[in-house]
Structure to design on (467 residues):
């Protein structure tokens, strides 16, 4: 629970503080990269660390993952520029790529099936608690001490988690003939990173840099597909992903991840710089989403047998565009409760959708493929978050580049002052317009999520095969 808490609190505490960090460090065009770099590293290494845990044991991989995550956290606090912060967040993401999947695997190792539901409820409560503590801690840290402490507070938590694993987790590691697809993970990372560079450069100025990055993305993508087809133990098993239940569910999950990252990345910026609210208020608007998520997950899990997996998944997908509507209607004078309501509805949607998705995928395959199928869904959500931050960040950058009503420097000062800077009406209006476009993007992506959920086939709950 401590290890999971470090990952869970990232969703609110960093989002709350980022407008002020960007205002201080500058280079606003790289704002979304702070989130994308973390997610990129986490996505690319999730499957790799899962396989390393099979080879060398859960405890060793978890201890290494926690060590990497804490190193990245310490370095983030010392970041002197946005590129430096992006690099250190990437290191954090590497650690998260080990902590999140292996922690879930440990639960599967330690507890029988009839106990696992209760334990998963404890883990879900971690996300609920972090959703309350994150905005409060982030707001207080920004207002009273240096923003560096939003990263450094991970150190005592991580050390406590590492001590617990070292002292109490006992396991017998069996040797297996499995190869880790390091080349596939590397090619995937290069392809996604190049795509993000292409989007960033196209949104900021366009030109030769964007085309060059796109060419690198395509080349790495082709090599990645070739590598996965020949690898003995590939990072992505295309035969598994080709099945309708897994393909449709993972597609809906990917787009849902894009929608949620758009909200958590850009809502705090709008609340603080356009609405003139405090970081604390911005954080609590996100709290509604992260609090609604585990509540809906618990409620959905209790009703799988009654309503079925597919209906609950589609219901969750339908809540996403409903929850996104309030954000496209936001103005500088809108009551904060409107944004909070939208966040709550989207949180409920993600809770129903994500829980039904993982169980549906697990029940659509046999025992021997369940681990790979589960990892595929986690991979899809993380990839969606990575792409969502990059795509919607490009939308904002392109809007700011076209809008001549205010300078980037003035917008950065506006972020640093939490929207209270006098005489910045033009910059505030330009930023509001760009952020509204990202909210429209969230709405469109949410509608696409609902459309994709319609292709998910019915799967019998608990049967392990399609109806």
């Amino acid at each position: 629970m401590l290890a999971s808490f470090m990952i869970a609190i990232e969703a609110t505490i960093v989002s709350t503080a980022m407008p002020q960090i960007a205002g201080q460090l500058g280079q606003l065009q790289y704002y979304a990269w702070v989130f994308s770099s973390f997610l990129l590293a986490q996505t690319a290494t999730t499957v790799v660390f899962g396989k390393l845990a099979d080879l060398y044991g859960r405890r060793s991989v978890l201890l290494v993952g926690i060590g990497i995550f804490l190193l990245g956290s310490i370095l983030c606090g010392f970041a002197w520029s946005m590129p430096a912060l992006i690099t250190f967040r990437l290191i954090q993401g590497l650690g998260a790529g080990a902590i999140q999947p292996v922690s879930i695997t440990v639960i599967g190792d330690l507890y029988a099936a009839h106990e696992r539901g209760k334990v998963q409820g404890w883990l879900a409560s971690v996300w609920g608690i972090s959703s309350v503590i994150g905005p409060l801690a982030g707001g207080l840290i920004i207002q009273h001490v240096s923003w560096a402490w939003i990263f450094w507070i991970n150190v005592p938590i991580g050390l406590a988690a590492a001590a617990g694993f070292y002292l109490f987790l006992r396991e017998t590691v069996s040797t297996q003939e499995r190869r880790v697809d390091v080349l596939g993970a590397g090619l995937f990372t290069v392809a996604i990173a190049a795509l993000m560079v292409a989007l960033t450069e196209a949104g900021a100025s366009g030109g030769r840099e964007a085309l060059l990055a796109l060419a690198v993305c395509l080349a790495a993508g082709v090599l990645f597909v070739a590598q996965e087809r020949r690898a003995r133990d590939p990072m992505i098993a295309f035969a598994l992903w080709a099945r309708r239940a897994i393909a449709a569910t993972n597609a809906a999950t990917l787009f849902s991840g894009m929608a949620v990252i758009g909200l958590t990345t850009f809502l705090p910026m709008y609340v603080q710089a356009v609405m003139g609210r405090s970081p604390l208020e911005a954080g609590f608007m996100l709290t509604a989403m992260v609090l609604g998520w585990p509540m809906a997950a618990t409620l959905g899990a209790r009703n799988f047998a009654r309503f079925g997996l597919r209906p609950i998944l589609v219901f969750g997908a339908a809540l996403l565009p409903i929850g996104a509507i309030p954000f496209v209607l936001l103005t500088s004078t809108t009551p904060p409760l409107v944004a909070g309501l939208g966040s709550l509805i989207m949180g409920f949607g993600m809770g129903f959708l994500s829980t039904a998705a993982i169980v549906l995928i697990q029940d659509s395959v046999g025992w021997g493929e369940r681990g790979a199928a589960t990892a595929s869904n986690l991979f899809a959500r993380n990839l969606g978050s990575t792409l969502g931050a990059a795509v919607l960040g490009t939308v904002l950058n392109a809007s700011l580049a076209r809008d001549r009503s205010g300078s980037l420097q003035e917008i950065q000062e506006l972020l640093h002052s939490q929207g209270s800077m006098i005489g910045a009406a033009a910059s505030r209006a330009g930023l509001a317009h760009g952020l509204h476009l990202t909210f429209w993007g969230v709405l469109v992506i949410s509608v696409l999520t609902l459309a994709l959920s319609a292709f998910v086939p019915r799967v019998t709950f608990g049967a392990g095969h399609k109806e």
Observations:
- The chain has a mean pLDDT of 80.
- The domain at 2-181+231-453 is CATH 1.20.1250.20 (Growth Hormone; Chain: A;).
- The chain has two domains: 2-181+231-453, 182-230.
